[in-house]
Amino acid sequence: MGYFSLSFSVVPLPSQNTGSHKIQLFERDDLQGQTLELTDDCPSVQDCIHRPEIHSLNVLGGSWILYELLNFRGR
């Protein structure tokens, strides 16, 4: 398995259910290892977490957009 470069950003899509957005980022494959939960946008995942890399993620609520670049740019 690969890993996510930390030079990416995440943002939840607007929803009528406020407070329903949650995503977990894991340091290992298969949702293992230390985790960080986000409930709001993060223009730089590298600045939001203190992990060398992310290997898996789990969306617990809402819909999220992951951008390949910082500050919500790229695909």
From TrEMBL:
SUPFAM superfamilies: gamma-Crystallin-like (SSF49695)
The keyword Repeat is assigned to this record: yes
Gene Ontology biological process terms in this record: lens development in camera-type eye; visual perception
Superkingdom field: Eukaryota
UniProt keyword annotations, A-Z: Eye lens protein, Repeat
Keyword Repeat appears in the UniProt entry: yes
UniProt-recorded Gene Ontology molecular function terms: structural constituent of eye lens
Domain Beta/gamma crystallin 'Greek key': 21-61, 62-75
Spans through the membrane: none
InterPro entries: Beta/Gamma-Crystallin, Beta/gamma_crystallin, G_crystallin-like
Entry similarity comment: Belongs to the beta/gamma-crystallin family.
Role: Crystallins are the dominant structural components of the vertebrate eye lens.
Protein name: Beta/gamma crystallin 'Greek key' domain-containing protein
Organism: Gopherus evgoodei
